[in-house]
Amino acid sequence: MPDPNSLDFDPSGPSRGAAGAARGAPLGRTGEPGTVAICFVIAALASVRARGLDADALLARVGLASHLLDVPQARVSAAQYGELWRLVAVTLDDEFFGQDSRRMKSGSFAMLCHAVIHCRTLGQALERSLRFYRLILDDIHGVLVREGREARIELHVRPGAPQRVFAHETLLMLLYGVACWLVNRRITIQYAKFAYPQPVHSAEYRLMYSTVLRFGADCTAIGFDAAYLDLPVVQNERSLKEFLRSAPENIILKYKNATSVAARIRRRLRQLLPGDLPEFEVLARELHMTEATLRRRLHEEGTSYQAIKDDLRRDLALRYLAHTDRSVMDIALELGFSERSSFHRAFRKWTGGSPGEFRRRPVADFDGQFDRFGH
Known about the structure:
The protein is of the alpha+beta class and 375 residues long. The chain contains 17 helices and seven strands. It has two domains: 16-252, no CATH class; 261-300 and 303-360, Orthogonal Bundle (Arc Repressor Mutant, subunit A), CATH 1.10.10. Helix content is 47%, strand content 9%. Helix 2 (38-50) runs parallel beside helix 4 and helix 6 (122-136) packs antiparallel against helix 7. The longest helix is centred in the middle third of the chain and has 19 residues, at 165-183.
């Protein structure tokens, strides 16, 4: 029988969280789940279809219609994607989605977490994680490099092995998600480079990794401050059980701590009109902190006040465009942009396209599919 505390737990149907996400939730509700681009759903199902298995049945179990896969800019909730991840892993008995010559058998991820939980520092935990993956995967492996004040996780593909983009994305997701959880903070990724050409969904990479991206590199890598490697592992066996119970939803999105300063700020801003957000010094006073302390706390959590505001405006922009007939200029003004052109530049940075292009997509019928990637 599958272990319900491991990633290979096979639920009998969509969980309460996934079912609720499928119905959609109003933007601004506290605790609203994040979303994942439809391209990652398609990638996760590729090996299921390649084996002639019923991918549509798996979609139905998490409350998704198969025709949603034909909508390029559609998004699904993190809860739904997490449920789908578990179902695909059980169906294939492979927690790496068929992205390697050797299966990553069900239960591997839970065993990895047990193997790193007693490490003293994040650096030791990452080294052990990478050794673990080298044992169970044949085609791709990672190394941890520390050079002065910079550290990076590099991924290398075995000569002659196929270059699978989703393999790189999945392994980075697993490594990064566990690393952030182990030290209970979001690790700021300073840059990311990839050993393959720029994919069509590269706009998602700015949200997943960093705004500093390079493609066609000698290897795939994410770079971060080496000081993170010396941070102590703060999790234990008890917190591990809860982490595994919530996996993989809690590693699909950027690390989120509901009690963090950033989470408190997000909850506060959702109560306000998007064009009437407080200045940084006002917010610091509300939180009973100095500006320097608040800035430092946000930096330690891997974000900034500007990034939090941008995320809120992006989420609202997507909802307004998808579910109202308001003009682009009205939306821009509502979100605090003084000019239409500045809103267009911001929107293109968020999504890779213009507001008009987004609105012309046949996505308005898919309520709840656009909000809050990574938050």
